[in-house]
Amino acid sequence: MIDEKSSETPWVLLQKAAFFPQMDIIRIKKLTHAYFFDILSENGYRTINVGVQGMKDLDIVEVLRHSRHDWLNRLQLIKGNLDLNKIDRAKEIIDEIVIDTQQESKLSNLQMPMFASLLLKSNWDNHHFQLEFEVLSDTDSKKTDDHLLTNWTKSLFLSLNKAIEVFGENHLSITIDPQMDGARFFFDFSGIIIKSELIEQFLSQPQESELVLEVKEFSKNELAFEVFMPFLKKDKDCDSHR
């Protein structure tokens, strides 16, 4: 049973509600409204998990403004489905939010603050594609060349933005797989590429020795490639002295 008078935040209680299939819709609505007003308040800023660690290059107030807007949109979706008695769909949305916040937390735990900042704020920028990411593991992660990786990814986003259909259904997925000697990144784009030559130019550019790129597929509607970045040598040296 959920204690609505507990010291836990409304969002935590709302997550727990998703696991009680027989829970009264009125009580779920109460929790949704409570979290809605909580996120509008000063306390709401502390409940928003946007992984702002390492975002020194981005105004935190701006991050919170965008994040609060995203959260309010999600809460409106939950509330709208509850009003229509679509309990299962409301719970699905809650589950989706939980997964998203878990991935944001994993990304923030990687020792790549600049790269994490780039991904977390990407969908707030004026890109012509929607970005999603997945971190397969955030345990025992070591440092890579964060500056090199971030600048390379920014260049990728810029080239992709110029090469794709502006109003097309464009999606870019990035999967991050930390391994024993480095981190492997899987980039998978699906959408409409109208200027393939721009992508070809980007992919054919000489890469830094620390960055290994392998193209898996390239067509008018899909682009898939892998990037491997070794961990920084000094971290390996530190490990050897432990």
Question: What would the principal axes of the Cα set say about the shape?
Answer: globular
Give the strand line-up of the largest sheet: 1-2-3-5-4
N-end to C-end Cα span: 47 Å
Helix percent band = 40-55%
Count every beta strand, where a strand is a DSSP E run of 2 or more residues. 5
Portion in beta strands: 15-25%
Order of helices and strands: HHHHHHEHEEHEEH
Overall residue-averaged pLDDT value: 78
What would you call the structural class? alpha+beta
Number of helices: 9
CA radius of gyration is 21 Å
Major β-sheet profile: 5 strands, mixed
What low-confidence regions span 5 or more consecutive residues with pLDDT below 50? 1-5, 42-58, 235-242
Which helices and strands occur, and which strands form pairs?
Layout: H1 10-17, H2 25-40, H3 44-47, H4 60-83, H5 87-109, H6 113-120, E1 130-135, H7 146-163, E2 171-178, E3 182-190, H8 196-204, E4 212-218, E5 222-230, H9 233-240
Parallel strand pairs: 1-2
Antiparallel strand pairs: 2-3, 3-5, 4-5
Helix pairs in contact: 1-2, 2-4, 4-5, 6-7, 7-8
Structure description:
The protein is of the alpha+beta class and 242 residues long. It is built from nine helices and five strands, in the order H-H-H-H-H-H-E-H-E-E-H-E-E-H. The protein has a five-stranded mixed sheet with strand order 1-2-3-5-4. Helix 7 links the parallel strand 1 and strand 2. The relative contact order is 0.09.
